[in-house]
Amino acid sequence: QLQASGGGLVQAGGSLRLSCAASGFTFGEYAIGWFRQVSGKGREGVACLSTGDGTPYYADSVKGRFTISSGNAKNTVYLQMNSLKPDDTGVYYCAAIKAYLVGVIREGNLLALREANYDFWGQGTLVTVSS
């Protein structure tokens, strides 16, 4: 199971921190990624954290603003979102991908940012950024 939390309403330029608590699978065998979805569109990969060496991977749209990390809480991954823009509005999901797929690039695409490669999904948490 994956439990995402921390969404809310924030003004442009503000910050939010999302949390994802994972259970029911061997955390080291999987990595956690974050996706977001705007109504009527598919899920967009935002970030993923390698459980092996801790390397983070980000979509170009959030580089320099978002930070994915693991925390002191067991099996929890965070997404710190700074300098939020109205375009960041959406439902944010955390999901689990087999650890060996993180960092793999196929046909120019980072597998860790493609939703089809994920095995488990949590419920979403809504982030609304007002202008």
Shape: globular
Helical content (DSSP H or I, runs of 4+): under 10%
- Helices, by number, come to 0
Q: Determine Rg (CA atoms, Å).
A: 14 Å
Let me know the number of strands: 13
Give the rounded overall mean pLDDT. 93
Reading the helices and strands in chain order gives EEEEEEEEEEEEE
Largest sheet: 7 strands, mixed
- Percent of sequence in beta strands: over 45%
What is the topology?
Layout: E1 2-5, E2 8-11, E3 16-22, E4 30-37, E5 44-49, E6 56-58, E7 66-70, E8 76-81, E9 90-98, E10 105-106, E11 109-110, E12 118-121, E13 125-130
Parallel strand pairs: 2-13
Antiparallel strand pairs: 1-3, 3-8, 4-5, 4-9, 5-6, 7-8, 9-12, 9-13, 10-11
Walkthrough of the structure:
With 131 residues, the chain is mainly β. Helices cover 0% and strands 50% of the residues. The strands form three sheets. Strands 2, 4, 5, 6, 9, 12 and 13 form a seven-stranded mixed β-sheet that branches. A four-stranded antiparallel β-sheet has the order 1-3-8-7, with no helix packed on it. It is globular, with a radius of gyration of 14 Å. The protein starts with a strand and ends with a strand. The mean pLDDT is 93.
Provide a compact summary of the structure:
Helices cover 0% and strands 50% of the residues. With 131 residues, it is mainly beta.
List keywords for this structure.
13 strands, 131 residues, 7-stranded mixed beta sheet, 0% helix, 4-stranded antiparallel beta sheet, mainly beta
